[in-house]
Structures are given as C-alpha cells and as structure tokens.
Queue: 2 jobs
Job 1
Amino acid sequence: MTSGSTEHHSGPIVPAERENMRLRTLRAMPSGAWAAALAVLMLTLPGCTAGPPGSREPAQAHVPEVHDQVPERSGQPEPETVELGTTVLGRPMKAIVFPGEEGTILIMGGIHGDEPASADLVRRLQRYLRAHPEGLAGWRVVLITRANPDGLAAGTRGNANAVDLNRNWPTDNFEPSAAHGETPLSEPESRALMRAIERYRPSAIVSVHAPLACIDPDGGARSERMARAMSAVSPLPVRNLRAMPGSLGTYAGEELRLAMVTYELDRRRTPPDDPDAYLDAHLPALLVAVEGAW
Ligand SMILES: [Zn+2]
C-alpha cells in the first residue's frame, strides 16, 4: 500500500476501525514523514538521556492505538509452533513461526527473566498478527515470546543456573564467568535460541528488553536504519548502548552483521491496570521492523 491509497468503507467507521486506519497510515508514511514524526517525538519525549533523573514520564503520547477486534480470517495460514529445546528445569523453549516468502525476521522477548514486559510485548505482537495477517507484509516472522522461561517463572535475570543468557553468546568479547557461563552457549536456553537463528536464518532480529527506554542498534548501517524507522513510530528514541560482552546484540549485529536492534522498554513490568494501552504504544515499532527489508 502507498501513502496515497484510499480506504473504502461501506458504513460508519467505528473507533476501533479508525485506530486501525491510523496505524495503516502511519506504517505507510514515507521516510521523510517518519523523520518529521520522529522530530515531534523527540521534542515531546524525555527519552534515554534527556532531563534530570526522576523527570521521566511514561512516554505514550502521539502513537496510534491498535486493536485486534477483527476476527481471524479464514484461508490465512496458521502460525506453526516449533519446539527449540528445553530449559535447565525442563520447560519447553518454543518459537511461533508465521509463514512468509519475503524474508525472515526473528523477534524475541524475555531473555532476561526480570523483564516480563518484554515477553508481554512479543506475545501482544503474536496476538495482533494472528488477527491481522496483513501485518506480516509477506515476511516470515519467528516469535520467541519467552526466551528465558525459567527466569521469567522465577523473576530472575538469569536462567536456573543464574547465567545471564544475554552474555552467553560466542562473540570475540565473551567474558567467561559464573554469571556469563564458563564457555559460550554453555546453557540449554542459549543453544536453543542459536538453533532458531541457524534454522531460520533471519536477516533481522529484534530483542526486547527493559527498562533503559531506548532503541539500540547493534552493528552496522542496516541496524541503524531499522532502529531509526522503529523510533519514528515509537515513544522511544534511538540510543547506541555499549556492545556488551557475549550479548545477542553483539553476536548478531557485530559478528553475523544482521540488522539487529535491542528494543528497551521503559518498564520491566507491564502496568496491570491497562496492559494493552501500554503495549500497544510499542506495537507499531515492531510492525515497522517486520515489514522492512533492512
Ligand atoms: Zn535485559
């Protein structure tokens, strides 16, 4: 769809439908318009670094709400659930795979178990894509909603061995330790995540974290481009964080040279009073990531 296309409706537009139109319009904006939207967002949002400590407000204004009240459509291929392995405590590691021909993107949440909002957001994306398969834009989308199931169940950053799975990747800067693992991929969870990368060979990866409130491109120009496009429709600004030793971002972005973005929510836990309102503010950024050829 182009930005000049028109929508045809046979009846009055209900609020939910209007919100969906806003989302489609936003996603169809040319890059110049994205830049303008980004400029507005940067003026209105405190972001990662701006403002004194304690001045940060939940940044949810100026982004579309999205709803999934449209029933699932018949004839759309169902996503496949694939087992990638098991955790230290024997929980299954699962990927949800939406079929597509254009290319593959992998999106995961919850690699740090004390950041459950990140798992909530990827699960929200899964629910949205099931109701709105046009959001796939022809791409194969591999979702891992719970990259660290044992840690999420226990509320711990690491897995059941107290190893940080985002420091356990085979990078040049890997630092062996009890907290990082004595060798790269020492943990069954990181091996299962690696299996997903080797099996699906994504050209782009988004890993959702919290609570640093920014969008961090890892690696080269493609990652930067994807981060900027996501930020244009997100409450969060782009900010380059340090390449952490043994992190997925360092592995996929710096070493595999994939388009790799670490999406840092501003809250570890989704606000319980209106979870969808919080998560939906971040959904457009993930949908932009899905449909781009980064
Ligand atoms: Zn994290």
Job 2
Amino acid sequence: MAVQSGLRPGKLPVVRGFAIQIRPSEWEELRVAGIVARARIKVDFSSTHRRFVLCAEESGGATANLGHYCGFLPLAGDPTFFVRPVTLAMPNTVHADVSAASLISVEMLRYGTTYTLNIFLHWLTTAAGPDALPAHHQKLLFSAHRGVLSEPLWQEGKKAQAGVHIPAFHRRTGDPLLIPSALHEAVGAITDAVCCVGCRKSHFLALKAITLSEELSAPGVHPPSARATVPQIASAEFPSQAGKSKKRRERRKEKQQLARQAPDTAPPSDTRAGVSVVSGLQEAKP
Ligand SMILES: [Zn+2]
C-alpha cells in the first residue's frame, strides 16, 4: 500500500507496528531505569542509491533487573547497507545508525531470567508514481515469550564468551520453539545486549549480514544490485535455487503445519498472518 504523500521533508513515515507489546507499568520501569530501545523504522530517500531505504537506530541496554534492546541487520549482499557507530552521553540508549533496502529487526525484552523475542524481516516495494512513498512490508520470522535462561549474564565475569547463551523458548505444552539457524548469531548477540548493564556500544556491529532461506524470505525481497537504479530481473539473481525448490516446498508445507499447531508463536500484535503491510504509518517530525 503506497502512502499518498509527496517527498516533503518531515512527512516520511515511521513504522512501529513490529515492536514487542509492553504494558504501561513495564514502560515506566524502563523509563526509570533509563533504558531506551527504539523498535521503529523510518523510511527515507537515499540520494546515493536513488531509492528509498529503511533507517533505524540500534539501541537499548540493561540494568541487573531488566533489559530491552532492538538491533537491525541487513541481508547479505545488500550494497545499500550503511552503519555508523554512535556514542551518546547516556548509556543504554542509541549505539548505531543503520540503513538498508531491507532490514531484519531483532528485539528482546528481559525481566530477570525471563525473555521475550521478536524478529521481523522488513522491506519496501516500489511506489506507483515518482512522488509517492513506497510501501513497507514486514514478515514475522520468530516470536516467542517466556524464554528462560538461568545463567545471570548481567553479573560481572559471566560473559567470558560473547553470544554463546540463548534463552530456551517453549510452547506452554513444553514443545520447543526452535530459532532458525540463520538467526542464531543475532539472538546470541541480543541476549548479551539485554544483559549488558550500562550498555555503551553496539552488539550488532561485528555480526554477519543474514542470508535467509527461501521459506524465511518473502517474494519481492531481493538485495538490490550494485546498480540499484536499474530494475533487475528477479529470477536472474538466484539461478542456483531452482533445483532445490521442491524440497523447500515440502519443508515449507511442514513448517506451515507446525505453525498452525503453535498458536503461542503468534506475535502479540495484529501480525498473525505472518506477512503484513503496515497500514497505520505514522508521520515523523523532521
Ligand atoms: Zn552493551
């Protein structure tokens, strides 16, 4: 859905619909603790790449009691990816600016030893006219709450190896909820981040860009070529995948069956269909 507004400064949309649902009392605790994790994405125009990109701030941190962090990673091979580290006076706030044609958002909230995790893929589709903004799309890659990690990573000396601890997520029936392997490194990093008391630097800068399997990715999500202004033929970029498609279709079918049996994996918001187009784009101040 294209947003009918021209390229006027100050009217660029901000996407917030993917954020973990946090109760007012929990927001108050985060505010008092001084933790600012910005689960939001702004759509902006890149003059260099002559296309719209997604811009976000990696941010967050922790106290001993709670942690909240939101990081963003590009898809492998995306030439529009830009990141710069940011250091602000206040800890537990912004650690990096990130922008790319597509982004994966990884958000985690921790109370004590209980963890909530949301991972989404975000991308844009081209607008119909030269003055229209493109549409933002998102797809849920993983969502689970009440994950458990008994290791108190927020204590001094508990982080000898970065990224090796990941909370265990289960359905209420005890069935394990498995995090896709392509996202393991990011989940390890964000687990550290929500245990990083007085966080002052990015936990995602050193991570690899993500390569999604066909079933995790979505139609229309292709890293733009280096010549981003030239429309590309979608299939030309992925010739090696044709032979594997049958096997993948079968795997996807199995996953869809599993997903239907696992209502707990649904996100807390209205994104239960998996892929959604944000309808309530909010306008940003310049
Ligand atoms: Zn940190």
